[in-house]
């Protein structure tokens, strides 16, 4: 399932996938895979992404029904 | 006979030790993230099981007295193909290239250089009158040919992947 919350949070800060990847310390493909729902990141990476984007885990990674 | 069996084993041990030491040093400098490391693990596993199945098949063929190459040629062929398989899976899963653009370019150049050197060895062998298939089966010339084909395929695959990545980064 696509992670549109992450994509919109990134876009809101006007960050490209490459810029976010550099800030978090992963490759651009990994950010792309997370946004496309092809890869489930570890909690460590989730926290790093949340801190960079100024969001909570619930905001970005909790699926609301 | 003893030499024929011992030589490949010694070479295999040396290769394994070299790769293990290289991996130890590489891990310290590696710039792979968690997804890439997982993908590389899957690639290692794929290449390892390929090698086991390949050697098992070679052993079976030997038991049934089907002689298609010397033991050393069979061993090197297995190593070349499984290593190429590992690299190909890593490249396809975006887990071969690190975040360093310079190092990625060096990898592509290395693939093509190795391919060209292998082709030169192959052509030089042909020039000396060697053949691809002799009395004992595949000759060493076949190894050069297969190594060059693998290198060029990996080089082309890498170039395509890097091009796609550039486009992806621009989007």
Provide an overview of this structure:
The complex is a heterodimer of chains A (65) and B (171). With 65 residues, chain A is mostly helical. Chain A has helices spanning 4-12, 17-24, 28-36, 43-53, 57-61. The model of chain A has no long low-confidence stretch (mean pLDDT 91). In chain B, helix 1 (2-29) runs parallel beside helix 3, helix 2 (34-63) runs antiparallel to helix 3 and helix 3 packs parallel to helix 5 (140-170). Chain B has helices spanning 2-29, 34-63, 71-92, 101-127, 140-170, and strands spanning 133-134, 137-138. In chain B, a hairpin with a 2-residue loop joins strand 1 (133-134) and strand 2 (137-138). A two-stranded antiparallel ribbon of chain B has the order 1-2. Chain B contains five helices and two strands. Classes of the chains: A mainly alpha (65), B mainly alpha (171). Chain A binds chain B through residues 16-18, 25-30, 32-33, 39, 41-42, 44-45, and chain B through 32-36, 94, 99, 165, 168-169.
* CATH-assigned fold name of chain A: 434 Repressor (Amino-terminal Domain)
CATH superfamily of chain A: lambda repressor-like DNA-binding domains
Structural class based on helices, strands and sheet pairing of chain B? mainly alpha
Strand content of chain B: under 5%
Task: Encode the helix/strand succession of chain A as letters.
Answer: HHHHH
The helix content of chain A, as a percent range, equals: 55-70%
**Alpha carbon gap, first and last residue of chain A:** 13 Å
Work out the radius of gyration of chain B.
18 Å
Number of helices of chain A: 5
Biggest β-sheet: strands ordered side by side in the sheet of chain B: 1-2
Number of domains of chain A: 1
Q: State Rg of chain A.
A: 10 Å
Sketch the topology of chain B as an H/E string, one letter per element: HHHHEEH
Q: What is the 3D form of chain A?
A: globular
Biggest pleated sheet of chain B: 2 strands, antiparallel
Please provide the count of β strands of chain A. Answer: 0
Oligomerization category of the chains in this entry: heterodimer
Please summarize the sheet with the most strands of chain A: none
Runs of chain A with pLDDT <50, length 5+?
A: none
Number of DSSP-assigned strands of chain B: 2
How much helix is in the residues of chain B?
Answer: over 70%
């Amino acid at each position: 399932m696509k992670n549109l919350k992450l994509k919109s949070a990134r876009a809101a800060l006007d960050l490209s996938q490459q810029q976010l990847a550099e800030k978090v310390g992963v490759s651009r493909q990994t950010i792309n895979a997370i946004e496309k729902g092809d890869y489930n990141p570890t909690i460590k990476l989730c926290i790093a992404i949340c801190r960079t984007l100024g969001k909570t885990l619930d905001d970005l990674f909790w699926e609301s029904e | 006979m003893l030499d024929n069996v011992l030589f490949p084993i010694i070479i295999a041990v040396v290769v394994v030790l070299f790769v293990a030491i290289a991996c130890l040093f590489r891990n310290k400098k590696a710039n792979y993230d968690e997804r890439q490391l997982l993908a590389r693990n899957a690639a290692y596993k794929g290449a390892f099981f390929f090698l086991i199945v390949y050697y098992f098949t070679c052993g079976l063929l030997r038991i049934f007295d089907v002689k298609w190459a010397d033991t050393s040629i069979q061993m090197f062929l297995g190593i070349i193909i499984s290593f190429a398989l590992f690299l190909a899976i890593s490249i396809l899963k975006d887990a071969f290239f690190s975040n360093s653009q310079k190092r990625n370019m060096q990898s592509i150049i290395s693939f093509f250089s190795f391919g060209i050197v292998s082709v030169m060895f192959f052509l030089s062998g042909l020039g000396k009158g060697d053949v691809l298939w002799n009395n004992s089966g595949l000759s060493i010339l076949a190894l050069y040919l297969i190594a060059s084909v693998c290198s060029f395929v990996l080089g082309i695959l890498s170039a395509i992947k890097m091009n796609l990545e550039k486009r992806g980064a621009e989007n």
